[in-house]
Amino acid sequence: MTLTSSPSPSVKGSPDSSPAPRRSRLLAGMGGQNVSLIGALAVVLILFGVLNDNYLSLSNMQVIAEAATITGLLAIVQTVVIICGGLDISVGSQVGVASVVSAMAFTSAGSNAFLGMATAVGVGILIGALNGLVIVYGRVNPTIATLAGLAAYKGLAQLLSDGRAQGYVLNNDVFIFLGRGKIAGLPVMVWILIVVAVTVHLLLKYTDIGRNLYAIGGNDTAARLAGININKYLICVYALIGVVAAIAGILLTARTGSGQPVSGSEGLELKAITAAALGGAALKGGKGGIGGTLLAVALLGCLENGLTVQGINTFWQNVAQGALLVIAVVIQQRRSGERAVGLPH
Questions:
Q1: Distance (Å, rounded) from C-alpha 299 to C-alpha 106?
Q2: For FRET with 230, which of 135, 213, 244, 299 sits at 20 to 30 Å CA-CA?
């Protein structure tokens, strides 16, 4: 006869059933970084909601969401490249090139929106892959390589467009739908951001590709010894950045009504890097996630909109972004326990 013991009922007040451990497990699952971002976001929403009655209105929330979409797309792929130990400072200029190319190809092809968008994506892949090839086979530091790209691609966009906005796309239903349409009450641009975010999150969390990217960023020597083709992964990651930057450029064209070589894309690289760092992506690689990045994008978007609504000089927004980036890096350094430069252990 086999005796089976039934699980003993949990004792009221025992460590397993008390609320405190459950809260601790919940907070651990969310991550300390994300909890801090949620708290900061709540403070920003409450503060500006008190200062301005219209700030928390549905219409203003939609304005914030639409304005944050392009930054969000770039921040997502910036998180991916940071996870594998790289960086891309040229994403803003890539958006400018894609915006101009999409509008010019659209006009040249007799108002064919799909051809215009396909051309922009193709150019995005080429630019992104070029960055990867320079970094991998030219053995150039990613920061230096993409800093050069920041200037070169900005110049390319200006050369293609002669420094002026190109084309007019708001006479086309496809671009109107992308820039101003809604699905289930949400702007199409926001749906695109959601689809990209979910896809990249699943890729990082549940596939061998994602695990390999974390491994490359965590310890590239160990990853190489484990048989991971680091060169191939880096080139593909930078090509992915080019694709998403092209999508962002197409959305910029749809939103503004024409191809923009600089306006609307300048400074996006700083916003994307700031959002990724605030979201927990370690700038040394091997750590980060899409959830934290999206929370940081929401925080930056709400803060920027709140400052604008209050009539605060836009120059202060740049000061705030720079300060937030420094704060994010300082927090990362403190958590890693690394010795400060020039100071004893």
A1: 35
A2: 244
**Could you tell me whether strands 186-187 and 182-183 are parallel, antiparallel, or unpaired per DSSP bridges?**
antiparallel
Contact criterion met (CB below 8 Å) for 69 and 189: yes
Tokens representing 137? 């086979």
36: pLDDT confidence band, cut at 50, 70 and 90?
Answer: confident
Residue type, 185: G
- Of 287, 133, 299, 291, the residue nearest 219 (C-alpha): 287
pTM: 0.86
Residue 182 φ/ψ, nearest 5 degrees: -135, 150
Enumerate residues 6+ apart whose C-beta is below 8 A from 143. 87, 89
Note the pLDDT tens digit of each residue in 312-323: 887 887 888 788
Instruction: Report d(CA 201, CA 320) in Å as an integer.
Output: 28
Is the dihedral angle over the CA atoms 246, 251, 257, 260 positive or is it negative? negative
CB atoms within 10 A of CB 49: 16
Residue 97, Cβ neighbours under 10 Å: how many? 32
Contact 99, 260 (CB under 8 A): yes
Q: How many CB atoms lie within 10 A of CB 79?
A: 27
Per-residue pLDDT of 224-268, as tens digits, reads 999 999 999 999 999 999 999 999 999 999 999 999 998 777 889
Token pair for 98: 């894609």
> Quick one: which of 256, 301, 232 has its CA closest to 75?
301
Average pLDDT score over the chain: 87
CA 96 to chain centre: 17
- Alpha carbon 260 to chain centroid, angstroms: 20
